[in-house]
Amino acid sequence: MIKNGRTFREDVKIVRRGLKEFDKILHGQMRHIFAKGILVSCISYIPAIMSSVIINELLTKQRFNHLIFLSIFAAFIMFAFTIMKIIEEKKIAVGFSHLFSSHEIYLTNRSYKLPYESLESNEVRELREQVSGSINVSGAGMASLYWDIDIVFTNLCSALIAIVLCFWYVKEIVIWDYSTHYRLTSSIVVILALFALVIVCSVVSCKMTSKRFDSNFEVFTNGSKYNRYGEFYTIKYLSNENAALDTRIFGQKETIINESQEKCYSKFADGQIKEMKAINKYDGIKLLCTCLCGSVVYLLISQQAILGAISAGSIVMIYAAVTMLINSLSEIAQIMTDLRNNNVHLLNFFKYMDLEDDSELVDDQKTSDAVSSTADTIEFRNVSFKYPGSDNLVLENINLTISKGEKIAIVGENGSGKTTLIKLLCRLYQPIQGTILLNDKDINSYPFSEYIKHISTVFQDFSLFAFSVAENIAASNNYDENKVLECLEKVGLGKKISTYNKGIQQPLLNGFDEEGVDLSGGEAQKVAIARAIYKDADIMILDEPTSALDPLAEHEIFKKFYEITLGKTAIFISHRLSSCRMADRIIVLDCGKVIQSGSHEALLLKRNEKYYEMWNAQVQYYS
User: Fold this and answer.
1) Alpha-carbon distance 580 to 595, whole Å?
2) How far apart are CA 384 and CA 80, in angstroms?
3) Separation between Cα atoms, residue 478 and residue 547, nearest integer Å
4) In angstroms, rounded to a whole number, what is the distance separating the alpha carbons of residues 435 and 380?
5) What parts of the chain have a pLDDT lower than 70?
6) Residue 379 near residue 443, CB atoms below 8 Å
7) Closest to 163 in 3D by CA, of 303, 284, 56, 321
8) Rounded to two decimals, what is the model's pTM?
9) Closest-CA residue to 365 (of 453, 452, 454, 448)
């Protein structure tokens, strides 16, 4: 049977892998699902079995002591099974409460193993958002698998018990036929009719359920996308203090709300209406079918009771077994439809899990060369790079040597390849051609974890976390307080931090901690620079980290930066060329190529060339 372009066998394989992945997220949790399924199935049959036994006893031997014993025994079994069921349900509820956070942690751990360039890919980012959104918005993916398997296993157990009971009574009817020389054909007809009822009712239920689920399948599949759109504009954008300026000045509120309504909330509402109409229609057909089947079952087994083939109490038991079998098969059919639809989300999950690992992390233990205690020389030798899926070179045939202790400024227009050059040096990207050398050895020959200890960076798009000031600077829970204070003094934040109630233990970001403090853009950049200083690496890189500072503050930071990096190799990128005058050498990039190199004074002598042109465009602001 083909559904959503996949055969039933293919869907089963997807579910099997989903269960293996689920066990990695919440190890051992499925055991509680299976235990609960067995207990629930047994509990549901105990009343029917006991009713059958008691009716037979009352109509035959009428042994009062025997009835008391049976009642006490049944009550004990019910009590014991119910207590065990409650325990398993609590464990399942606890597991479910952990599922969403464990799911995100599992995805985050996977993200850490991906190449950095994959994390920058729109396709990979959208895939991650789909996987996260599916479970958080509609409870699809692993959450749906969790509950669906619970229902499937419980009903499989129930169906198995029903089949055993049905075969037991079928055997009783056949034995009665032989013993009384009654027409065996009549009993066979009754038995076949019962089985036909089970099959017909189950098929009808399966069809009705499939139509019901398909009515809202489009929203089930794309719910995370719709929610992401609406959530961004109504929760993140409209409430954002910066966006609030635009929405008020340009009157964007109504436009944003209408767009969100059209592309998000109205789709959810339309899907809900479709599903409710389908429920009323198809569940009504299922209910009618079940009632008709139940009536026919009563007639057939009552006839056998009248003939004497079965006891009066057996009527209760057979009816319960047949109706429970029909209900169980219907539930299984219903959930199988849900499982097959849910496989769309599981396939996205698998696709994310199957992304290629970062070779830097995979091969970290395979490399044998030890990194020298100091970084003496860095060399880019014929290095070229382009982004995956692009035909345009971002960097082309770069040849550049940087000696220990040299202060290098890299300048160029936006898109000239400055930041890409730094990311190649940090081994976040791999060149498509050429080699980058550290101390005359390919940087890829060193273990990444050791190599990166020699490099400290502050990118323009840096991140601070809702940790204490000290933990942000040390990038660790363990830190040297004196060293943290020294780094703060070097970037000019010592006095500011000392005014906080908790000093360097003061948490950052008020949105995550009621005691947290929010820093200005310039203060946050200084903390990021302090973090780079704390690492005390041989090579320090500043990639436009001072863009939020005014020119005077930036000049002061760079002046201190040169003092801090005395004896170290320093590389910095800045659009403000006034700060580059302190560099030993300035590298000018244009369209991914090194077009000039030299000191500030030497480059200004080359009139009508790029650096001179850039300097003259800015010099009016420095005079």
Assistant:
1) 17
2) 71
3) 30
4) 6
5) 1, 169-192, 194, 197-198, 202, 205-254, 256-287, 290, 294, 297-298, 300-301, 303-313, 359-373, 545-551, 553, 620-623
6) no
7) 321
8) 0.73
9) 448
